[in-house]
Write a structure and sequence with these properties.
Oligomer: heterodimer
Number of strands of chain A: 5
Strand content of chain A: 15-25%
Helix content of chain A: 40-55%
CATH architecture of chain A: 3-Layer(aba) Sandwich
CATH superfamily of the largest domain in chain B: Response regulator
Number of helices of chain A: 5
Distance between the termini of chain B: 59 Å
Number of helices of chain B: 11
Helix content of chain B: 40-55%
Chain lengths: 145, 427
């Protein structure tokens, strides 16, 4: 069943994880242009994980770079999926364009990544991915209800 | 099947496919045509059982005839003068059908005797084997040895007349087998050298691939800067913000250009083939650091650069960039949670010394002596075991220096490269 609910982007809080400051700010600008207004930023998986563990912190979607020092994207994905409240939080993995990435993507699928997006990407592509994962999440919720 | 044919087939079985083929070509030189022909009859193709004794006119005693079957075993060319012999060998070399050995009469009745002729022939065909045939003992073994020189010690033998068919046949078989074994050894060494070269090329490609993966990731980010800021610039009405976005785009493009230029240099075949030239070691080091910069940042590796700005060395600059990249990759793999690399350049009295020390866990003492061995790895399937072996080859064989890998007293691994100052090898 396809959800006919509309998504009010301005209400959702997006966690953006990337060790490159400029990439992070570009993604946030792109999210703003799509209509999002609430953001959290983290430079690596461990910092992002702190937000996940914080019961008072709202996180509705995660956009995370794959390759980061210390705690990479896949480690964060596993931690998120293992978390009671965030097991179904939409997770978009950002990767670089290289053949090796294909292998990584298949690995990520096993850990239930909702979508992946390859750098560089434009706001329009990000918007399409976001709406895809958010609608899927709503559908899952509706099916579960 | 005759014994000889069987023997030949067995020998062929010893040779690998596509490898060298057994050589049964024999040159016979004797100024008395009947002697040469007699030897040919013993050895040559399609000769049936041979019972003819070989004798020289001056000999009164005849050897006991030995029945032998030599069907299809040898390809024999008989000549009577030194000029013909040189011509036959030169022609054979040109046609790529060299002689495996020759029977040389010592006294040729010409200005050039058999020994001098062999010396001349060895300058045309260094691999041919000579058997001297003499009736007079006018040249002792020591004299022949002295005349041919130490360098040709293993390239000749001799036989006294009178001799039997069997003796001639045995000399021919021994000498041609020796030729075959030498060619087989050369061939195996060539294959080994090719395999070695292939491993080195593969490892160089591995290093290029490792840097390449990092470059690809860096490029993803740089393109993201460009695309993101281009979108921002398009949407901006404020000229100042638009200009700021365009500045970022230009800066990212410049960085991408530099990364690409350095990366191309790393695997540019022409650059690798550059002969030894004078270069500044510090520049080579900086090039390697720049190539790895992105990975260092990603892995929280801090580099402590040397205080020395100039250290000139004559060698292959590209090889040294390769060495530094390999050593950096090793240190980085050892310091999974980040760490530091301290680099020192020092011009000592007796050598140039480069030291790289990391703050990783070090190498267990029991495997330390083996880390520079080819194919030894502690990285399981993620390592080829060639990184340090290639560094050692570049430092010690290509540059005449010495590479030492040790655990540092303050912890971590220290790699010391000692290089010759004035072309003298570091012992």
């Amino acid at each position: 069943m396809k959800s006919d609910q509309t998504i009010r982007a301005s209400h959702l809080c997006v966690l953006v994880v990337d060790d490159d400051d400029m990439v992070r700010s570009i993604i946030i600008e792109q999210l703003r242009s799509i209509g999002f207004q609430k953001f959290l930023e983290a430079v690596n998986g461990s910092e992002a994980h702190k937000f996940i563990l914080d019961p008072l912190q709202r996180v509705d979607m995660i956009i995370c770079d794959w390759e980061m020092p210390k705690t990479d994207g896949l480690t964060l994905l596993r931690a998120v999926r293992a978390h009671r409240h965030h097991a179904k939080t939409p997770f978009i993995m950002v990767t670089s364009q290289q053949s090796q990435e294909r292998m990584k993507i298949s690995q990520a699928k096993k850990h239930e990544v909702d979508a992946y997006i390859v750098k560089p990407f434009r706001a329009e592509t990000l918007r399409a991915k976001i709406y895809q994962v958010l609608f899927e999440a709503l559908d899952k919720k509706a099916e579960g209800a | 099947m005759s014994n000889a044919a069987k023997l030949l087939r067995e020998k062929k079985d010893l040779f690998p496919q596509n490898g060298p083929v057994p050589n049964r070509r024999i040159l016979v030189i004797d100024d008395e045509p009947e002697i040469g022909e007699a030897i040919r009859r013993v050895l040559a193709k399609n000769t049936e059982t041979n019972v003819t004794p070989i004798r020289r006119s001056s000999r009164s005693t005849e050897p006991t005839p030995t029945p032998v079957n030599t069907a299809n075993e040898f390809d024999v060319v008989v000549v009577t003068t030194p000029e013909q012999a040189i011509e036959a060998v030169t022609f054979a070399m040109r046609e790529n059908r060299p002689f495996a050995m020759g029977f040389f009469d010592v006294v040729l009745g010409a200005e050039v005797d058999g020994i001098e002729l062999v010396k001349q022939i060895l300058s045309v065909d260094t691999k041919m084997f000579a058997v001297f045939v003499t009736a007079y003992h006018d040249r002792s073994v020591d004299t022949i040895g002295a005349l041919l020189g130490e360098e040709n010690r293993e390239k000749w033998d001799y036989i006294n007349k009178p001799f039997t068919d069997g003796e001639i046949l045995q000399k021919a078989r021994n000498a041609t087998s020796l030729w075959d074994l030498h060619r087989l050894k050369d061939w195996q060494e060539e294959r080994l050298s090719e395999a070695h070269q292939l491993l080195i090329t593969n490892e160089k490609q591995n290093a290029v691939a490792a840097v390449g993966r990092s470059v690809a990731h860096e490029f993803g980010n740089l393109l993201m800067h460009i695309v993101g800021n281009a979108e921002l610039a398009i949407e901006q009405n404020d000229p100042a913000r638009m200009r700021a976005a365009l500045d970022v785009i230009l800066k990212a493009s410049d960085t991408a250009t530099n990364v690409l230029r350095r990366f191309r240099k790393l695997h540019d075949a022409e650059e690798q083939a550059t002969p030894k030239t004078q270069f500044n070691m510090r520049t080579a080091l900086e090039e390697a650091i720049e190539l790895m910069e992105f990975q260092f940042r990603k892995n929280y590796i801090r580099i402590h650069r040397p205080k020395v700005d100039t250290m000139n060395f004559k060698g292959n600059r590209h090889s040294f960039v390769q060495v530094f990249v390999n050593l950096f990759i090793n240190s980085m793999h050892a310091m999974k949670d980040g760490g530091e690399i301290f680099i020192k350049l020092e011009e000592k009295k007796e050598c140039l010394e480069i030291s790289l020390r990391d703050t990783g866990p070090g190498i267990p003492e029991d495997i330390l002596p083996r880390v520079t061995e080819a194919l030894f790895t502690t990285k399981g399937k993620n390592g080829t075991g060639l990184g340090l072996a290639i560094c050692k080859e570049i430092i010690e064989i290509e540059s005449g220096g010495r590479m030492t890998v040790q655990n540092h007293s303050k912890g971590g691994v220290e790699v010391i490269l000692q290089l010759p100052t004035g072309g003298e090898e570091v012992l």
